[in-house]
Amino acid sequence: MAIDYGDARTGVAISDGAGLLAGFTTVLPSREEAGLLEELERLIRERGVNELVLGLPRNMDGTEGARGAVSRAFGDKLAARTGLEVHLWDERRTTIEAHQILHTTGKRMRKHKKTVDAVAATLILEGYLARKRLGR
Q1: Distance CA 33, CA 27 (A)
Q2: What tens digit of pLDDT does each residue of 17-37 get?
Q3: Does residue 18 sit in helix, strand or coil?
Q4: Which of 9, 25, 46, 91 has the most CB atoms at less than 10 Å from its CB?
Q5: Are residues 84 and 51 in contact, defined by beta-carbon separation less than 8 angstroms?
Q6: Strand partners, 29
């Protein structure tokens, strides 16, 4: 499961059983952290998730800003609640790429808000799965 954690919305992507492709995506409200953690736990149980990947925001020069610290803290809480290790994944440019993908599919910009976080989570998941297949 890949998670694109945000203040208002959190994108989630879960791979197929073989771990090759994102097979399920959703966007969850994240203004209330306790509710988000509960919903993520439910998805983990229902979908048999055994690995978590959390997008880690970084500045373009590779440094980590305040948002990175927020994501790390959320990852620690998620690991504590689920008992699963949380792998951090550099998410630079995933939201930009997600907007580009939605734009090329003909979605209007104002409709991107509803799905861009799920697309960003899919990009995080696909990057992580590709690296895993390469054995790195």
Answers
A1: 14
A2: 777 777 788 999 999 999 999
A3: coil
A4: 91
A5: yes
A6: 9
Structure tokens at 52: 């978590």
Q: Which residues contact 127 (CB under 8 A, 6 or more apart)?
A: 89
Distance between CA atoms of residues 108 and 30, nearest Å: 24
b/e code 77-114 from CB counts within 10 Å (16+ = b): ebeeebeeebebbebeebbeebbebbeeeebeeeebee
Sequence-distant contacts of 94-99: CB under 8 A, at least 24 apart: 94/4, 94/55, 94/120, 94/123, 94/124, 95/4, 95/120, 97/123, 98/122, 98/123
pLDDT digits (tens, 9 = 90+) for 68-78: 899 999 999 99
